[in-house]
Specification:
Blueprint (H helix, E strand, L loop, with lengths): L9 H5 L4 H11 L4 H8 L20 H12 L6 E2 L12 H8 L2 H4 L11 H18 L3 E2 L6 H14 L8 E5 L4 H14 L2 E5 L10 E8 L5 E2 L3 H9 L3 E6 L1 H4 L12 E5 L15 E5 L12 E5 L5 E5 L5 H5 L12 H39 L8 E2 L2 E5 L3 H10 L2 E2 L1 E3 L10 E5 L6 H15 L38 H12 L22 H4 L5 H4 L11 H18 L3 E3 L5 H18 L7 E5 L5 H8 L3 E5 L9 H11 L3 E7 L11 H10 L3 E6 L11 H4 L3 E4 L19 E3 L35 H34 L4 E2 L12 E4 L3 H5 L3 H10 L6 E2 L6 E4 L7 H23 L16 H5 L9 H5 L19 H6 L20
Parallel strand pairs: 1-14, 3-4, 3-5, 5-7, 7-8, 18-19, 18-20, 20-21, 21-22
Antiparallel strand pairs: 2-9, 6-12, 8-9, 10-11, 13-16, 15-16, 17-23, 22-23, 24-25, 25-27, 26-27
Subunit structure: The glycine cleavage system is composed of four proteins: P, T, L and H.
Family: Belongs to the GcvP family.
Keywords: Oxidoreductase, Pyridoxal phosphate
């Protein structure tokens, strides 16, 4: 090893505090060193003594880690995969790759709950919704879901919850729907008592107990059909009809809503997002107006600001899990925002003409390939198709081997079989296919058949023909956003124009409690663009994906060691899905033992709202546990509930450190109490950023835990997604982790899938691999220590101005602290939301507001912020406290003050009229010292209620009342 290789350790770049900063902060808190401090914060009986791990890396520079990861990625073999099945080759335009995917203004931003400082992201997502509405013909679409399989499942459960006949419990699934989608549906259906039945659309027979029906266009064999008659028959029986639709096929086909479908779902992967071994990819969900109050996920809607500016915000049921808890219609609280944004820019870049040309070209090439294969004597199936076909023949094994020899992966038929078992092959063409590739494919097939015929006499007919299904007959995507940015110059300027409206980590600290907005280093993110990682099909042969296998194996070993559990599944592609999978593992275990009474799930009232929603989805009944005055789980109430429900308890779900930001002292006793009745302890891993390297959940009694890799392990939030929520279990529960199959319902009795691909959003796992590899065991421990130190420093600095709501032992908090503003309204008329908006004037993103306690703010500084930035935040809060005192002491300021009028925009400052009883300087430049950097909110305070009363979630070219000259907001 180069003797200088370890002189520039990554961890020294990741941590915001240097040794002198650490010493100053510890002295202020009254401690001599970091170990003494941590010893006082974390309960002694769970503290992990620092020792050298045989499993974890030692830490290194980014150069070393990148070189090693490159060697690992080269173990993947980049074949041309024409497997299809929901995953296709595509080209990410470099202008989008460089300026969006690889731009920290886009990938480090948080979910746009603070709409005033998220107008750029919201516009890009609004464009995504507009695109989906233009594609499908519906007027309502959400801002993306996790993947196609889970989107179909959300459609099923929404149909189930909206059914008129509450006794109907059967959901029909067309036999041509992808089998891996069917398996995800099966997972979601079983705990809810929904029966799934396959059907053939040609022989549809209604049943009295059917509430919903799912079709797919094109189907798994490439077939298309006109579903009009089938849908009309279903509607006569009051059956809700959902269609999975390929968006590139939908470019040509009449909008699916016009066939009478109620709900349309699918994946926008082939709109510029690489396959990446399965994800992340933005799924879409569109429906009729009838279901707008039930649609899962996030919806971006138009509204007005205080000053009348056309604005955007998250609308309707945003974060409904926190309000409705176990009565929520879905546990989905995240999306695939960054991928949806990439897809929306892709559509913007190509426009309707470009997308139509691309889709027609695929049909032409598919017909050309079929004609050549027909000349070779293969029997081409009858019917209408878009880009795919299946062919069964005796020589399929030889054809597959010849394809592999020439760098191609074909679809092996029947699905899920090996090459040696194959009876045929399937091919799906894509955006990357050209005439030369068609000839290579034909040569592979001809060699497999043992034929050497000259087919040069068959020429490519560029005439577009597409029979058997109605096509679009009207212009679409005419909004200016899809017509004005098709040169690289224009698109680049539009991308940066939107980015400048958004607050991201580029602009300053995002001190959100529970969400851990830490540094996402460039070194961690750069490998996701490598072709050997981004171009791999999730269903490629195992011997082509050894690089990914190594990355996943390393992460499983490292994470297992860090949290003290046995096994890890990376299939869940969000924290909510990790919760669901962990609870299903517990449920499956008890079912395997024939213990069918274990249906009670104990959940503290402080828990994240997805916890009770996930428990209900997994088939549990929620029992709420009270919290005491210090924010801890009430051990007395827990003991009473355990005694009351005894052997009907399946699990306790808890968050540690608690949602209130403290390390509860009785955590071992709590786990022991649950184990005493034979139940399991589930840990919501949202707060692992305070534990890694300091204590291990498996050691103090946790049996199953999901982790948010987009929090603790550096995958960026991307404006609200992507995320990865792997689930880890003890040895007892390891056999019940998620499975995956390309065959229809081939699991064991207790197997299940929670995502469309085996390893979920695999292409972003290298980010966490890089973080752990570079940080190493000591770096990870130091990161957790600094996260806790920074939170306590802020709490200590602000304690004389604000009440710190909860503290643990020795007057310490964990990695986040809660400030109490519950008396603010009675004293000043202000709300905690006003404080959040005023922080924008100080160039800060607001902390988490009104959760987990109403009228509070929860602050989490993370380990990657500098002491300078921590002090700037504390100064802002202290100055705001002085502004609050001024309002409290002057009743004339109650309705017209610095805080209630915030944020102040540059347009207000340059206007001739200034009708506020304070200066412009105090409004916009409130710091007493030099203000070097100023972030401006692009709009004034947004009217939330207006947006919900007047929901507009896509840009209608005919909407002249709200929009000017067809421009999106």
């Amino acid at each position: 090893m180069n003797p200088k290789s370890n002189t520039d350790l990554f961890i020294d770049r990741h941590l915001g505090l240097n040794d002198n900063d650490e010493k100053k902060m510890l002295q202020k808190l009254g401690f001599n060193n970091i170990d003494e401090f941590i010893h006082q914060v974390i309960p002694e009986d769970i503290q992990l003594k620092e020792k050298c791990s045989d499993v974890l890396p030692k830490g290194c520079s980014e150069i070393e880690a990148l070189n090693e990861l490159e060697e690992i990625s080269n173990k993947n073999h980049k074949f041309r995969s024409l497997i299809g099945l929901g995953y296709y080759g595509t080209h990410t335009p470099k202008v989008i790759q460089r300026h969006v995917l690889e731009n920290p203004r886009w990938y480090t931003a948080y979910t746009p709950y603070q709409a005033e400082i998220a107008q750029g992201r919201l516009e890009a997502l609004f464009n995504f919704q507009t695109l989906i509405c233009e594609l499908t013909g519906f007027s309502i679409a959400n801002a993306s879901l996790l993947d196609e399989g889970t989107a179909a499942s959300e459609a099923m459960t929404m149909s189930f919850s909206s059914r008129k006949n509450k006794s109907s419990n059967t959901f029909l699934v067309d036999e041509n729907v992808f089998d891996h989608t069917f398996n995800v549906l099966l997972t979601r259906a079983k705990p809810l008592g929904i029966k799934l039945k396959r059907f053939n659309q040609k022989y549809f027979n209604n049943h009295d107990d059917v509430f919903g029906l799912l079709i797919q266009l094109p189907g798994k064999n490439g077939d298309l059909f006109d579903p009009t008659f089938l849908i009309s028959q279903a509607h006569k029986a009051e059956i809700v009809v959902t269609s999975i639709i390929d968006p590139l096929a939908q470019v040509l086909i009449k909008p699916i809503a016009q066939f009478g479908v109620d709900i349309a779902v699918g994946s926008l992967q082939r709109f510029g997002v690489p396959m990446g071994f399965g994800g992340p990819h933005a799924a879409f969900f569109a429906c009729t107006e009838k279901y707008k109050r039930l649609i899962p996920g996030r919806i971006v809607g138009q509204t007005l600001s205080k000053n009348g500016e056309q604005s955007l915000r998250l609308a309707l049921q945003t974060r409904e899990q926190h309000i409705r808890r176990e009565k929520a219609t879905s546990n989905i609280c995240t999306a695939q925002s960054l991928l949806a944004i990439i897809s929306s820019f892709y559509a913007t870049y190509h426009g309707s003409l470009g997308l139509t040309k691309m889709a027609k070209r695929l049909v032409v090439l598919r017909r050309y390939l079929e004609s050549l294969l027909s000349e070779l004597g293969l029997k081409i199936p009858l019917g209408s198709r878009f880009d795919s076909f299946d062919i069964y023949c005796e020589e399929s094994e030889k054809i597959h081997k010849e394809a592999l020899k020439n760098g191609f992966n074909f679809r092996i038929l029947p699905l899920g079989s090996s090459i040696e078992e194959s009876k045929g092959f399937g091919i799906s063409l894509d955006e990357l296919t050209d005439k030369n590739e068609i000839h290579k494919i034909v040569n592979c097939v001809a060699n497999g058949l043992g034929r050497k015929e000259d087919l040069t006499h068959i020429t490519l007919n560029n005439c577009f023909q597409f029979e058997g299904i109605p096509l679009r007959n009207k212009e679409w995507m005419q909004q200016n956003v899809f017509e004005n940015y098709q040169s690289e110059t224009d698109l680049m300027r539009y991308i940066f124009k939107l980015a400048e409206k958004d607050f991201s980590l580029v602009d300053g600290m995002i001190p959100l409690g529970s969400c851990t907005m830490k540094l996402n280093s460039a070194a961690e993110l750069s490998p996701i663009s490598w072709a050997n990682l981004s171009s791999i099909h999730p269903f490629a042969p195992a011997n082509q994906t050894n690089g990914y296998s190594k990355i996943i194996s390393d992460l499983e070993k490292w994470i297992s060691d860090l949290i003290g559990l046995n096994s890890v599944s990376f299939q869940p592609n969000a924290g909510s899905q990790g919760e669901f999978a962990g609870l299903l593992a517990i449920n499956s275990y008890f079912s395997s033992k024939g213990d069918l009474l274990r249906k009670k799930c104990l959940i503290p009232q402080s828990a994240h709202g997805t916890n009770p929603a996930s428990a209900v989805m997994a088939g549990f009944d929620v029992v709420t546990i009270k919290c005491d005055s210090e924010g801890n789980i009430s051990y007395e109430d827990l003991l009473n509930k355990v005694q009351e429900f005894d052997n009907t308890i399946g699990a306790l779900m808890l968050t540690y450190p608690s949602t209130h930001g403290v390390f509860e002292l009785k955590i071992r006793e709590i786990c022991d109490l649950i184990h005493s009745v034979g139940a399991f302890v589930y840990l919501d891993g949202a707060n692992l950023n305070a534990q890694v390297g300091l204590c291990r959940p498996g050691d103090y009694g946790v049996d199953v835990c999901h982790l948010n890799l987009h929090k603790t392990f550096c995958i960026p939030h991307g404006g609200g997604g992507p995320g990865v929520g792997p689930v880890a279990t003890s040895e007892t529960l390891s056999p019940f982790l998620p499975s995956h199959s390309l065959k229809d319902n081939t699991f064991s009795q207790f197997g299940y899938s929670v995502s469309s691909s085996q390893h979920g959003s695999a292409s972003i796992l290298p980010i966490s691999w890089m973080y752990i590899k570079m940080a190493g065991q000591r770096g990870l421990r130091k990161a957790s220590s600094h996260a806790i130190l920074s939170a306590n420093y802020i709490a200590n600095t602000l304690k004389n101005k604000f009440k710190i709501l909860y503290k643990g032992q020795n007057n310490c908090v964990a990695h986040e602290c809660i400030l109490d503003f519950r008396e603010l309204k009675s004293k000043t008329g202000l709300s905690v939301n006003d404080i959040a908006k005023r922080l924008i004037d100080y160039s800060f993103h607001a902390p988490t507001i009104s959760w987990p306690v109403p009228e509070t703010i929860m602050i989490e500084p993370t380990e990657s912020e500098s002491l300078t930035e921590l002090n700037r935040f504390c100064e802002a809060m202290i100055l705001i406290s002085e502004e609050i005192e001024e309002i409290e002491n002057n009743i004339n300021l109650r309705n017209n003050n610095l805080i209630s009028n915030a944020p102040h925009t540059i347009n207000e400052l340059i206007a001739d009229n200034w009708n506020y009883p304070y200066s412009k300087e105090k409004a916009a430049y409130p710091y007493k010292g030099k203000f070097e950097h100023k972030f401006w909110s692009s709009v004034s305070r947004i009217d939330n209620a207006y947006g919900d009363r007047n929901l507009i979630c896509s840009c209608n070219v005919n909407d002249k009342d709200f929009l000017d000259d067809k421009k999106c907001a």
